[in-house]
Amino acid sequence: MARPPHCLAGDGSAVQQRHGGSWRRRWRLATSFACVKHRVFLEHECPGCHRPSGLTLNGGWPGSLLLIGNPGLEGLHPAACRSDAERGRPGVICGHRLDQPANAPLRPLPQNLADLQSRLDHLFDEETAPEDAFATFADLQTITALVLATWPAMAEMVTTDQKAAVDEHLTAQEKRLPGFVAQSAPRDDGVFWTYLPRSSIGAATVLSVADRLLSLPDGELGQELGRLAPRCPERDNKRWGAIWKLLDKDTTLARRAVVQQPLRKRPRPRTPSTAWSRRQIIPSLLALKIEHRHGFAPENIPQELPDQWFRIFWTDADCPLPPHSRRFRRTAAILLVQIAEDMNAQQAAEYLGFPPGTNLLATPAQQPAPASSDERTDDLHESLYRLADHLAAIPAADHVDYRRRRRQYESWHLGDDAFAELVERFVAVNKRKPAAPADQLHEALSALIWSQVTGSEPCLAPCFRLPFAAPGRSTTRSDPAIHLANRLRRDKPR
Predict the structure, then answer these.
(1) Is the peptide bond before 493 cis (omega within 30 degrees of 0)?
(2) Looking at residue 185, what is its pLDDT?
(3) Per-residue pLDDT reduced to its tens digit, 210-248
(4) Contact 318/370 with Cβ under 8 angstroms?
(5) Domain boundaries, the chain
(6) Do 361 and 262 meet the contact criterion of CB atoms below 8 Å apart?
(7) Percent of the chain scored above 90 by pLDDT?
(8) What is the number of alpha carbons within 13 Å of residue 308 lying toward its C-beta?
(9) Does the structure show a pLDDT above 80 at 253?
(10) Residue 360: is its pLDDT beyond 60?
């Protein structure tokens, strides 16, 4: 990219005057779109020839852009444009001095983009661990590819001029597609979705959208990527380039599990969901032949699968299940315990702490299996081991001993003083008292806190069982306190 003149002017020292001012190698990187010192966007074209500075004598786009264009030329000032001025006339060099004042006014840099550029620049500083910077850039490149592949799905997040810059980039790529030789991939012909816009505003736009997505909690990021999934091109589309290798090998483990779902290969065509009911799914799962996996232990399995795990396991868009499908999650947890340890389903249910009469493993009136049941069972088998492999990839130090936590807090409940303090905080923030009855709210909050710590279902919290609950207490969703706990869990944090 050409630099704004005052960025190239330098500090006036002899060495900078001799070698063209304060040129920075970092400015050639795709993630560089601004000068944070002068708070302006970088310029991607020479104002003299209107071509990217740094093109070779043979021209072309995009493969011939170098750190220093035509470095063998003599007699040119280092700050002069070294691109060939006219296509088809090799040897006619532009020579425009990029450190001279430009006629067009410079574009000011918004604060949010200045902060983003500063954070990206910081990844190259010595105090940043190389492996951390590498993983961050891998995450960023994965999301930017998804943003460009599904554009304009995220266009509502940017301004009109920013959207126009991305549109221009994608239009230029579309024009190059007829000459794109798919067999040459992963050679970059400028049409890959991993290829950022060359204009500084376009690059800043895509990077800022990707950065905002990556800043979301895993649950919200998963929802946003799920919204993009219908627009996502097929996995075998050559314009993805090497994004799949990057996703599987270089992205951080936490992001990989969230991101890989919408980018996964489309499932095979399936029979309508009405032909494969939940009453058939669970017995089909329990009938699977289990192969043991290493890398995690039965104590690392919680009673209730986290949303992130459940999304990895269940990806069937034709037969969606509610996010808190209790019976289905219990079945998946039981199977994971069986994968880690030699147990039958009932033993695994008892190991996880499901009380007798509440495990819901029995399914009444099973319907006849549809003709495609073998294929669907294979899919369930594949989904189960996909989740098991994900758990096995988690470092041992990051595994949680949920069984120890369940035993450690098997009699825990929220004390009266702690509950009163929570209510006081609620009143201070909201300027009103909670609408729910105090006794139900006390139980609901106690169950939610216990479930978060132990990875368990709120309805199985100690406050709903003896000795803290009245004899014969129900643990169904119709119970007012349990219903309140489930509703609070679905609400946004307050």
Answers:
(1) no
(2) 43
(3) 999 988 888 888 888 888 888 888 877 788 877 877 877
(4) no
(5) 1-127, 129-259, 274-400, 409-490
(6) no
(7) 15
(8) 17
(9) no
(10) no
Does this model's pTM top 0.70? Answer: no
pLDDT, residue 193, reads: 85
If one compares 166 and 383, the residue with the highest pLDDT of the two is: 166
